[in-house]
Design goal:
alpha+beta, Beta-Lactamase, 40% helix
């Protein structure tokens, strides 16, 4: 069995070229040559794509490493103080908190705070309106502080609490960072 064919190819300038010659060869002969040429081109392109993807993966891995280091540094920073630190988003959801805040919140309200929980609904009902006012004021862009007195387990505690709006890159308030310092010894 023989095949009659006309061969065409694309030259290095990207122009279609045809070979006028037609011929009769056994089936598979020209197809093999053509598939070798196409296969080599495809393999070359796949190798280029693979190298590009490997470079992108390496960049992403480096960025991820830097991000993890940055997260570790921030965690170390907020854990390096005895002051309670926490942040909320615009729906009062706890985003970040340090151990000092966890301990204070647990002592004051007998609830262990965790990221993702609502910072208002976990408070006693009688305190919720006060904290909603504080959070809403800061979510409105106001930076302020207040002093609070708590009597917990026969211990008087005075706290200086500062509320700081968190702004996005376009200037929108997206949350609040709160810092609470025990000032009992000053009283």
């Amino acid at each position: 069995m023989h095949l009659i064919f006309a061969l065409s190819f694309v030259n290095s300038a990207g122009e279609d070229r045809a070979i006028d010659k037609t011929g009769m060869y056994p089936i598979g002969y020209e197809l093999f040559v053509q598939s070798q040429v196409l296969g080599a081109g495809i393999m070359l392109r796949l190798e280029e794509i693979n190298q590009h993807l490997q470079a992108e993966i390496k960049q992403l891995q480096q960025a991820e490493k830097i991000l993890r280091q940055s997260e570790t540094n921030l965690l170390n920073l907020i854990e390096s103080t005895q002051d309670a630190i926490w942040s909320i988003d615009s729906t009062y959801t706890l985003l970040t908190l340090n151990l000092a805040f966890k301990q204070l919140f647990l002592l004051a309200f007998e609830v262990e705070p965790v990221p993702g929980m609502n910072a208002v609904s976990s408070l006693p009902v009688e305190q919720q309106p006060l904290w909603i006012d504080y959070y809403d004021r800061a979510l409105g862009g106001d930076r302020f502080y207040t002093e609070h007195y708590y009597f917990l387990n026969d211990i008087s505690i005075y706290l200086d609490i500062s509320f700081n709006p968190i702004f996005s890159q376009n200037g929108q308030v997206t949350g609040v960072a709160i810092f609470s310092k025990d000032i009992t010894n000053r009283q």
